[in-house]
């Protein structure tokens, strides 16, 4: 079987990735027609041992699934999808777009056949109705009935096929979906009309069947086009990577320039990126100067300069000069590919409200089928000739399509809109949780501040020779940099930048502690960090020099050397790290919205307190270890708080995972290691405010949609059962109800 090929490790490299101990895949779905299909696929796959999560995104026709390899293989998952009448294949943007286009074209063709057949069937039915009033002969009546059968047969078999296929798939899976009552209504009506035509006894409703299918398909076509428009933003974010790369060799071998497939690139390859081209993968510039745009990745529209040694992201646009880069991650594992996977996981995951709506729709369908049987029995006893039509009206009018669309449509549009202004959702519960938040906690460095400190002052304590103080400054700066040379902390970057022209000694036995680092350089023991870490066992009276100088609006750290059994401060470093421009406005707006704002920082210096006071934060706690931050969050949660944590990923992974909702700065640590529910792609804190306002509006629209869908189904139930609503009118009402829900969700696009 061709599906077995997908079990091969080489094939899986292109579409399967790992999250902890699970395999995950993003798949294109073929044959997905409505919310009933999505629900059926999820329920079928979740019955398998080893499958941990299944989420179908109806808006962009994609399936996200995670599983344990020891229990089930990807080929078995694909086979089970095919068993219930659908098809799933690894997602590729270009083929997926072509698939959606072909599906829309086929639906439009079915709609055209239904419309043409409905008009013709209505014309012949009208001849029968008028003829009955004016004394038409039985021969002409039978002729028009047979002609009506002929023109409605393609509509029933071809245009109505999606409903029967979906219903049959559900019944094979031993469950029911929303297409089951619709199919029952269509089949019973057509067969009853066929019997009346053959036996010359009773009424025919070929016109009603054709109109019924036409209205249902018309409603679903409008719904599908609206869903596809809602997912256009997500498609814009999924950049089509270049097919070719200009290959120069591995690690600077300087081979003759040749074009190779971009997906064949590996770490360490050197490639050339020409002016106007898209960068095919993540890498470091090794030759040349680049002006690039990351607008489609981070939302930053300004051109950015990148020089030798700096990072460029796959998907960036090279504006001016060609440059040569070394690949650090192939296209399938670039940050842009990761962002694509994270966003589609979020679109696939559904929060509690969506899952509750699905359960309600399934429960409603089962009860409606039972109620339809009772309606048929009641009418058969009172007026047998109206039993079938009243039953059909009940089955059609109360189909809960709108109920199943109410939540996912709003979530899809809201998720895409937030990604547009740089707030990327990676988990499905964000939209609910952001509205329910009572407390929001910020880290300091890299979150409230820019996270790009620069060394502005260096002090050598008690230099023995003033004339050689510059040499001592360089000596101690090189030692400090050597201690931090392997760290990703922002201060380490600042030290490396300040000492880039100095020869660095080798540091040994380096160990990181809360507040600083300790190690051996040139046979001597040194500590670098905040005062309590560097000279923690020395009082001010025994220290030979002041620990640090400078005002509290700058960050100060100390280099200490071990002399005998004590630690003596030998140098001080003063850094400036500016507050983010939007920080104060964001915090004030959050406080005005009723949220309590905390700052939990690992920085024990006065600088951290200064930042908190400048921003007017409610509660500031400094000098905390990652474990202490986790305890602070848990203490708030035990008192009923709904906590949002905002951090840059440096030592923040535990507390990000603990909070009810976590937001990571896009410029933090590697996105692959972030335990966050959402990411600020452009590091703009004001995006949190806009996201929260959009989430409030999205939740309001979800409630409106759910209330409308429930009210409509309840209001239609009794009139349909009493025979006041004919089947064709019930079909129009059901279609308009679904379209109304979709259009209401689309209002979020104007946010």
SSE topology:
Layout: H1 9-12, E1 16-19, E2 22-30, H2 35-45, E3 51-57, E4 62-67, H3 74-83, E5 87-90, H4 93-134, H5 138-159, H6 161-172, H7 179-199, H8 206-230, H9 232-237, E6 244-250, E7 258-261, E8 269-273, E9 282-287, E10 290-294, H10 295-298, E11 300-306, E12 311-312, E13 317-318, E14 323-329, H11 335-348, H12 352-382, H13 387-397, H14 401-420, E15 423-425, H15 430-436, E16 439-442, H16 444-448, E17 454-460, H17 469-484, H18 490-498, E18 507-513, E19 516-521, E20 524-529, H19 531-534, E21 555-563, E22 566-576, H20 583-592, E23 596-600, H21 606-615, E24 619-621, H22 626-638, E25 643-647, H23 653-658, E26 661-665, E27 678-680, H24 686-721, H25 727-746
């Amino acid at each position: 079987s061709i599906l077995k090929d997908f079990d091969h490790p080489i094939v899986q490299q292109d579409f399967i990735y790992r999250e902890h101990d699970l395999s995950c895949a993003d798949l294109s779905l073929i044959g997905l027609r409505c919310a009933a299909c999505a629900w059926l696929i999820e329920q079928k796959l979740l019955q398998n041992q080893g499958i941990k999560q299944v989420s179908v995104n109806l808006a962009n026709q994609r399936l996200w699934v995670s599983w344990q390899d020891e229990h089930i293989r990807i080929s078995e998952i694909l086979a089970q999808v095919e068993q219930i009448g659908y098809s799933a294949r690894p997602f590729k943007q270009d083929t997926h777009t072509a698939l959606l286009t072909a599906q829309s074209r086929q639906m439009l063709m079915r709609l055209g056949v239904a419309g043409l057949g409905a008009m013709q069937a209505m014309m012949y039915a009208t001849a029968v109705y008028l003829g009955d009033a004016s004394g038409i002969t039985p021969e002409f009546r039978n002729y028009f009935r047979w002609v009506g059968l002929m023109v409605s047969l393609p509509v029933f078999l071809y245009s109505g096929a999606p409903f029967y296929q979906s219903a049959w798939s559900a019944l094979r899976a031993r469950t029911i979906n929303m297409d089951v009552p619709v199919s029952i209504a269509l089949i019973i009506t057509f067969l009853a009309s066929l019997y009346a035509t053959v036996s010359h006894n009773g009424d025919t409703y070929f016109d009603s069947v054709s109109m019924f299918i036409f209205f249902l398909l018309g409603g679903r076509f409008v719904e599908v086009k609206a869903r596809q428009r809602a997912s256009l933003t997500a498609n814009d974010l999924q950049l089509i990577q270049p097919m070719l790369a200009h290959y120069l060799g591995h690690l600077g071998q300087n081979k003759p320039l040749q074009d190779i497939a971009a997906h064949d690139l590996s770490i360490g390859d050197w490639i050339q990126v020409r002016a106007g081209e898209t960068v095919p993968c993540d890498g470091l510039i090794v030759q040349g100067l680049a002006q690039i745009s990351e607008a489609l990745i981070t939302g930053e529209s300004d051109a950015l300069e990148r020089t030798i040694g700096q990072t460029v992201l796959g998907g960036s646009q090279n504006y001016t000069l060609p440059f040569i880069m070394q690949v650090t991650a192939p296209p399938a594992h670039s940050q842009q590919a990761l962002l694509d996977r994270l966003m589609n996981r979020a679109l696939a995951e559904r929060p509690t409200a969506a899952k509750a709506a699905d359960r309600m729709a399934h429960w409603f369908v089962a009860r409606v089928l039972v109620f339809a049987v009772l309606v048929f029995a009641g009418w058969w006893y009172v007026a047998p000739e109206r039993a079938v039509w009243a039953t059909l009206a009940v089955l059609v009018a109360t189909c809960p399509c709108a109920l199943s669309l109410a939540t996912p449509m709003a979530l899809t549009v809201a998720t895409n809109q937030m990604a547009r202004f740089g707030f990327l959702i990676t988990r499905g519960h964000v939209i609910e949780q952001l509205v329910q938040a009572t407390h929001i906690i910020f880290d300091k460095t890299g979150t409230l501040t820019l996270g790009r400190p620069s060394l502005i002052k260096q002090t050598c304590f008690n230099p023995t020779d003033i004339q050689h103080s510059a040499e001592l400054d360089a000596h101690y700066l090189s030692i400090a940099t050597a201690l931090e040379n392997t760290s990703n902390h922002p201060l380490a970057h600042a030290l490396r930048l300040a000492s880039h022209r100095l020869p660095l000694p080798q540091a040994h036995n380096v160990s990181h502690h809360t507040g600083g680092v300790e190690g051996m350089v040139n046979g001597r023991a040194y500590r670098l960090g905040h005062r309590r870490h560097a000279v923690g066992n020395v009082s001010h009276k025994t220290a030979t020099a002041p620990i640090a100088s400078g005002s509290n609006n700058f960050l100060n750290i100390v280099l200490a050397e071990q002399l005998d059994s004590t630690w003596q401060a030998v140098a001080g470093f003063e850094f400036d790290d500016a507050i983010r421009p939007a920080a104060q406005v964001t915090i004030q707006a959050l406080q005005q919205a009723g949220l309590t704002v905390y700052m939990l920082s690992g920085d024990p210096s006065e600088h951290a307190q200064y930042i908190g006071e400048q921003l007017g934060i409610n509660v500031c706690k400094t000098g905390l270890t990652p474990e202490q931050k986790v305890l602070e969050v848990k203490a708030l949660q035990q008192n009923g708080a709904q906590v949002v944590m905002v951090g840059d990923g440096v030592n923040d992974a535990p507390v990000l995972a603990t909070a009810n909702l976590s937001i990571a700065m896009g410029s933090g640590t590697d996105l692959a290691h972030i335990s966050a529910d959402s990411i600020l792609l452009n590091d703009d804190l004001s995006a949190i405010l806009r996201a929260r306002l959009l989430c409030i509006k999205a939740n309001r629209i979800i409630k409106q949609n759910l209330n409308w869908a429930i009210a409509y189904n309840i209001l239609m139930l009794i009139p349909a059962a009493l025979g006041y609503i004919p089947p064709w009118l019930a079909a129009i009402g059901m279609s308009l109800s679904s379209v109304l829900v979709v259009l209401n969700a689309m209002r979020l696009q104007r946010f």
